[in-house]
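ok so for the tutorial part 2 we go from a plain amino acid sequence to predicted structure tokens. step 1 is just haveing the sequence, like this:
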Amino acid sequence: MTAAFTAYPAFLVTVAVLAGLVVGSFLNVVIHRLPKMLERQWRSECAELAGTPPPPAAERYDLVKPRSACPQCGHRIAAIENIPVVSYLALRGKCSACKAPISPRYPVVEALAGALAGYIAWRYGLSAAALGAALFASAMIALAFIDLDTFYLPDSITLPLLWAGLLFNVGGVFTDLKSAVIGAAAGYLALWAVYWAFKFATGKEGMGYGDFKLLAAIGAWLGWKMLPLTILASSLVGAVVGIGLIVFARHAREKPIPFGPYLAAAGLIALFWGERINRVYFELF
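step 2 — the prediction. this is what the tokens look like for a chain of 285 residues:
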């Protein structure tokens, strides 16, 4: 199989796209269920700390069980209805039982994961860098959409992602270990400083601690030299999208906008094109 992938790069890309679509389907489960799982855990912990009776035991709820079902009618989704992108198109975006609309986010996440997996396979080939980039991209997708829904970046993703970045760079896959360690520390401290400066100036919280940890994870994967680009790119994208929402979607100015999706997008930009962008920047200035 390895020889076939090496001899026929198009075959590797095709397999990567198909695998990415399947991973995207799993990411949809993570995006939907992980916040609910954490909420259940927090309620149980709060009850224990308060010395009150714990919430009544519910049926098992995790990333495996129960089976996916329509939230409107409870119809259990069959395997044939769960083929990434294809099933959504075949069902015309509706539940096969009650005809309730299915959110287009599901095929969007699947298609995005498949496209990124294909690009990563084309760019890095069969290598440790491809494996690392695929892991990094999958985490960015999950974190971005969870933050969009809940304004929360779960530690159960950001912290393992940070340590995984350091471990990959023990072998210098994306940067040297020294740069990765400095990047992790500098990434956290950079947004931590912005947070406290904004809070002292306005009395309000401008971002959450999850943003600190996400930038620290990006620094651990890509090194400290990519942090200025990541911060600048995320700020620019966030400003453009925020202004667009206010002008065209009548988004209230006082209504918060999650910063995690812009950090995730900037992290992917830095992963794929960061060195080229930095090189052009330094040549110009």
